[in-house]
């Protein structure tokens, strides 16, 4: 019988601490950069937390995680990707002694996952640099953050080495190019940040990532550590060679982050670009040796492709995460993001050909406005057929990539329970299989409701995707 997905394929969902936990100052937690970012990725930040920042409460996962993990288990999750809030463990980020209550929370969370046979996957740094490190050191522009990060990873590896097998070092590490505060804790405004300081910060993160891999392999021999990039293949707008070269350059701009973490050294193609920018990366003795500690797998988010053109008059793609021009062949989501399921197959092939390492799709989903209605069983629900259609198309393309020969470990859909959007800081931009009753004005009961997609995804997991073949028949 034809099978779409291998036995043991890791189906699950993904969240980030800063977007779902809330409890932003409870039990010894310090402030993170997210607590002063009430307007999302590119929005202005504030000096102190403000009431309009939806992330301060999130969806109250900190107090309701047992209920939520139980719902994930009901769907059949094999794996659950979350992050550790660095400032729960080290409130300022540069302390030597961790916050025990913060450590215990994640002990309890991971225990709850294992209670249902769910494997945790942990992102070490997911857009939540402690605010003190941003204000005092200007984030990753300062080499001292490598030492603080090392202390943090040694602490959590020692604590959770018997509970967590899969680790990711940095979330969407290449996003620092467009969002230096959110991704790198850098307080200098993007338009004022020099290329020298930006690429030096990137170097510090890459060294820290490799150091985490080294420490993990020493402390947890059975662990698997991955890099994680924002995945978005770049198409040329036309077959004109100028457009093709522009697309190639854009891909290189993003791929070099993974190239270093997978291959253990800087790619040659970066030399000319850095020279053009007047950048000379300052390497300390031992950096090149540390970078040789390469990752075990490559993880990435995928929400759509981008398009490039050498024509300066080409229409800008307003919803493209990484910029570029509009692709006239693709529909867009409610938030203007291009919808390109085939791009996922293309990206999987592109990355596997490039690295020959196992891949993991750790984010994918559709942000949309959902509305509660009364279901046929008398329970409140969301008739989110649009989400089912979107995700089914992407899962089918993953299956095609497996047939192409790609080695794929698993799939964790983004925002498996509604959470606060990173891009817009809204709750009305929902991704989940579980609806959370909270609105952008802060009202709502925080009650959870199963959407139609909840039962659809449950069926996908329990049949290991074989139900898609039945649908074809």
UniProtKB/TrEMBL annotation:
> What is the organism field in this record?
Faecalicatena faecalis
Q: Give the positions the UniProt entry annotates as the active site.
A: 363
Extract the Pfam families matched here: Glyco_hydro_1
- Has UniProt tagged this entry with the keyword Hydrolase? yes
What is the recorded name of this protein? 6-phospho-beta-glucosidase
- What's the Enzyme Commission number for this chain? 3.2.1.86
Q: Secretion signal: which residues? A: none
**Keywords for the protein's UniProt record, in alphabetical order:** Glycosidase, Hydrolase
Q: What GO molecular function terms would the record report?
A: 6-phospho-beta-glucosidase activity
Entry's family note: Belongs to the glycosyl hydrolase 1 family.
Indicate yes or no for the key word Zinc.
no
Q: Which InterPro entries match?
A: GH_1_N_CS, Glyco_hydro_1, Glyco_hydro_1_AS
């Amino acid at each position: 019988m034809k099978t779409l997905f291998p036995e043991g394929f890791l189906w699950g969902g993904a969240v980030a601490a800063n977007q779902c936990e809330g409890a932003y100052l409870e039990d010894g937690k310090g402030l993170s950069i997210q607590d002063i970012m009430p307007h999302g990725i590119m929005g202005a930040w504030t000096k102190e937390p403000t009431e309009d920042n939806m992330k301060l409460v999130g969806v109250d996962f900190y107090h309701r995680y047992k209920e939520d993990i139980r719902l994930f288990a009901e769907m059949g999750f094999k794996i659950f990707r979350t992050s550790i809030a660095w400032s729960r463990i080290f409130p300022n980020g540069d302390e030597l002694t961790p916050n025990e209550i913060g450590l215990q929370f994640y002990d309890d969370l991971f225990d709850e996952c294992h209670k249902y046979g769910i494997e945790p996957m942990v992102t070490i740094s997911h857009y939540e640099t402690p605010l003190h490190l941003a204000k005092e050191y200007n984030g990753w522009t300062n080499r001292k953050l490598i030492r603080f990060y090392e202390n943090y990873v040694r602490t959590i590896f020692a604590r959770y080495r018997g509970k967590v097998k899969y680790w990711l070092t940095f979330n969407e590490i290449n996003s620092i190019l467009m969002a230096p505060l959110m991704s790198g804790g850098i307080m200098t405004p993007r338009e004022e940040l020099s290329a020298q300081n930006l690429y030096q910060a990137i170097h510090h993160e890459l060294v820290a990532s490799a150091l985490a891999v080294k420490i993990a392999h020493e402390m947890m021999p059975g662990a698997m550590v991955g890099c994680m990039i924002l995945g978005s293949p770049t198409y040329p707008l036309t077959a004109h060679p100028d457009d093709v070269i522009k697309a190639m350059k854009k891909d290189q701009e993003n791929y070099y982050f993974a190239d270093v973490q997978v291959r253990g050294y800087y790619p040659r193609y970066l030399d000319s670009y850095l020279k053009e920018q007047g950048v000379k990366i300052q390497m300390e003795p031992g950096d090149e040796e540390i970078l040789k500690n390469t990752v075990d797998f490559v993880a990435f988010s995928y929400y759509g492709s981008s398009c490039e053109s050498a024509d300066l008059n080409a229409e800008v793609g307003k919803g493209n995460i990484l910029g570029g021009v509009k692709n006239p062949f693709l529909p867009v989501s409610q938030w203007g993001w291009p919808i390109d399921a085939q791009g996922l197959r293309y990206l999987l092939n592109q990355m596997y050909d490039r690295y020959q390492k196992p891949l993991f799709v750790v984010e994918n989903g559709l942000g949309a406005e959902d509305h509660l209605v009364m279901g046929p069983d008398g329970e409140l629900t969301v008739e989110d057929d649009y989400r089912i259609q979107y995700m089914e198309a992407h899962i089918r393309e993953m299956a095609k990539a497996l047939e192409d020969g790609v080695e794929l470990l698993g799939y964790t859909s983004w925002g498996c329970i509604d959470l606060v959007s990173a891009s817009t800081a809204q709750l009305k931009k929902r991704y989940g299989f579980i609806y959370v009753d909270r609105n952008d004005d802060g009202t709502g009961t925080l009650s959870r409701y199963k959407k139609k997609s909840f039962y659809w995804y449950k069926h996908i997991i329990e049949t290991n995707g074989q139900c898609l073949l039945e649908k074809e028949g």
